[in-house]
């Protein structure tokens, strides 16, 4: 494992170039370019806020901020895993021709989405003082810790799915269905108080349940996440990343036979 990490460091410039390339291709010939990174979550927030605060009536104060605090980390997670899922297959031609650590391909997708994630935080920090000035909390300085947790959890899941998809091509379809269900089983668009007490234990089996709490707490609730959600989300991120790293490097030498 140490050898594979050192190899990744050696190819860090190649990883950086892949990230830059992905960002350029994503917004190529787009009139608004990187502005779409900020507009997309805002437009989705606007639609969902109208539906769930006026039509279906979720009684949550500052619902727009509540919603965006859940949507931004979720979008980073879901988009990163979805893109990484096909990363090895999409780069099959390059993998056949030259040697580079295969791990750079899924990780480049995660890193490029991390850049988008950071940019998408800008409208959130603009909206908070406009919609609810009382939510400017010092606890927001805890946010980098929450982002580190979700980054490693996302990277681990990306490595797992990118590995599985080489051998089982149906994984790309399974991921789409899985993430639709996962989204609604995570308190993103609805508050935790709506979950019946008897079902809370099942929701707590979901790592994103705690990760979203760790992201939302410092921004929306104005408090550092409790020790329990912090430890569980941190442990989930660490275990998922290490397992994903191990699984990917265990089978990467067999990729060439399935490309």
What does this entry look like structurally?
- This protein is mainly alpha-helical and 259 residues long.
- It has one domain (2-258).
- It is built from twelve helices and no strands.
- It has helices at 2-10, 12-26, 35-55, 63-85, 87-90, 92-97, 104-131, 143-167, 171-184, 200-203, 207-221, 227-251.
- Helix 3 crosses helix 4, helix 4 runs antiparallel to helix 7 (104-131) and helix 4 (63-85) runs antiparallel to helix 9 (171-184).
- The protein is globular, with a radius of gyration of 19 Å.
* Beta-strand proportion: under 5%
| Total number of strands | 0
Helical content class: over 70%
Distance between the termini: 24 Å
Number of domains: 1
Quick check: average pLDDT? 85
User: Mind telling me the C-alpha Rg?
Assistant: 19 Å
Task: Label the overall shape.
Answer: globular
Number of helical regions: 12
Q: Main sheet? A: none
Ranges where pLDDT stays below 50 over 5 or more residues in a row are: none
Produce a short descriptive summary.
This protein has 259 residues and is an all-alpha fold. The chain has twelve helices and no strands. Helix 7 runs antiparallel to helix 8 and helix 8 packs antiparallel against helix 11 (207-221).
């Amino acid at each position: 494992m140490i050898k594979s990490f050192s190899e990744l460091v050696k190819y860090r410039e190649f990883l950086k170039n892949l990230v830059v390339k992905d960002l350029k291709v994503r917004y190529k010939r787009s009139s608004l370019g990187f502005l779409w990174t900020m507009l997309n979550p805002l437009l989705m927030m606007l639609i969902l806020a109208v539906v769930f605060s006026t039509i279906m009536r979720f009684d949550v104060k500052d619902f727009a901020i509540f919603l965006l605090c859940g949507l931004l980390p979720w979008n980073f997670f879901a988009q990163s895993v979805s893109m990484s899922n096909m990363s090895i297959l999409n780069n099959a031609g390059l993998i056949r021709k030259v040697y580079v650590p295969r791990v750079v391909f899924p990780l480049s997708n995660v890193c490029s989405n991390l850049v988008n994630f950071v940019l998408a935080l800008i409208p959130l920090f603009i909206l908070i003082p406009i919609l609810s000035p009382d939510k400017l909390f010092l606890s927001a300085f805890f946010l980098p810790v929450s982002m580190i947790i979700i980054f490693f959890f996302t990277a681990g899941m990306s490595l797992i799915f990118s590995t599985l998809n080489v051998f089982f091509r149906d994984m790309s379809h399974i991921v789409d269905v899985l993430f639709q269900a996962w989204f609604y089983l995570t308190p993103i668009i609805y508050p935790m108080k709506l979950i019946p007490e008897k079902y809370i234990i099942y929701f707590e089996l979901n790592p994103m349940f705690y990760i979203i709490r760790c992201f939302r707490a410092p921004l929306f609730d104005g408090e550092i996440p409790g020790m329990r959600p912090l430890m569980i989300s941190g442990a989930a991120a660490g275990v998922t990343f290490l397992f994903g790293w191990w699984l990917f490097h265990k089978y990467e030498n067999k990729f060439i036979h399935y490309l």
